[in-house]
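Hi support team,

I submitted a single chain yesterday and got back a structure, but I'm not sure I'm reading the token output correctly. Could someone confirm the output below corresponds to the sequence I sent? I've pasted both exactly as they appear in my results page.

Thanks,
R.
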Amino acid sequence: MPEFKSVRGMRDLLVEETKQLNFIIEKARETAKSYAYGEVTTPIVESNELLCAKTSDEIRNRMFTFKDLGDRTVSLRPEFTASIARLVSNVLKKSPRPIRVLSVGSVYRYDEPQRGRYREFWQSNFELIGSNKPEADAELILLTNNFLNKIGLKNHFFKVGHMGILKGVLNQEGIIEKTQTKILQLMDKKEYAKAFDLIDDNSRSVLESLVKITGKNVFDTIEKIKNQLDGYEKAKNAADNLKNILELVAESDSQLKSIDPVFSRGLEYYTGLIFEVQIPEFDISLGGGGRYDQLIELFGGLSTPAVGVAHGIDRLNIALQIQGIHADDQNIKKVFVIPVTTDLRIRALEISEKLRNSGIFVEFEVMGRKVGKALQYANKINMDYVVLVGESELKTGSVALRDLAKHEQITIKIENLAKKIRE
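Hi R., thanks for writing in. Yes, this is the structure output for that exact sequence:
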């Protein structure tokens, strides 16, 4: 028989990995509730035409695309925003604005597998649709900061930019959209020399000066950017918009580490604010997003402003591991229930269910092992307590409760058992 392995770039997530993944997802859902985002679920498989409509060539070329049995070209979703835009443009087109939605699930890209980059990976995706105000942009940064604080991540910081700065310069210089897309893709990869070769001397000198701008204070940096944009009114307005957004964020504990005027994320649909979040120990984006005011209209909906952010759950998991942070389950007491004889299985199961109904983690002995072997197993899997259901104890309505850490055992009334374990 052949030895079957998982497909390259796909992974089996074992118990501890799945626990950590679910911990992060749970915190994403908690964050969604606190910011009034309702969760929606969209298909993993979407029309290839939909997914290709406004993404980057890099992602288009890495989608899992195939023909279904109806000879339709479909793809596995490479991200969530196109699906949400489709949903808003038809199903939710009459819903009151703003629409706030969370999506959580797996997405697929045919990338070269490496640490933090897989072909199947998980995201939590937040979208705020219907507002063009800076308050909406600020909310997505604040929400991301709140979410990362909830999972316990330390020292995270934000890198921010604004697509209107670059596009304001390129549009005023009459550079066609196809060339702009190529320029932005090259700048996203920091291949500035190649990008500048595609533009004329005037706009080239402006962009070269923007590349050189640095500063520790984000508001000083914005002023430096504006000083380089004389004559480019729309680009300067974009810098002002970025300043307005960050003023709303500044009073929080969000770490706005840097403004990058030539920062360009990999998706073509961004029109305004863009941002990413990182930690010092891990040189890869843990999440990012921005404003996309033209995407919903592209899919047949009304002209609708929108802003969103996606968080890489797998990357957040790695970041937490780097920082030594694990899913917070230390307050959950784990109990192993052993019937001393097979005749006592029904009674032992009844006691197990009572403990579970009291919110206690219970594993029941299902292997038919003798007490000694069952105790060895309980120690091996790091149980906190063992409940021994024996005939002599049951005659007085009691069981034996063994504390595995303290190596102590007491006899306790069944009605007091759950309270004692929780203590």
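A quick pointer for reading it: The chain has a mean pLDDT of 92. Let us know if anything else looks off.

Best,
Support desk
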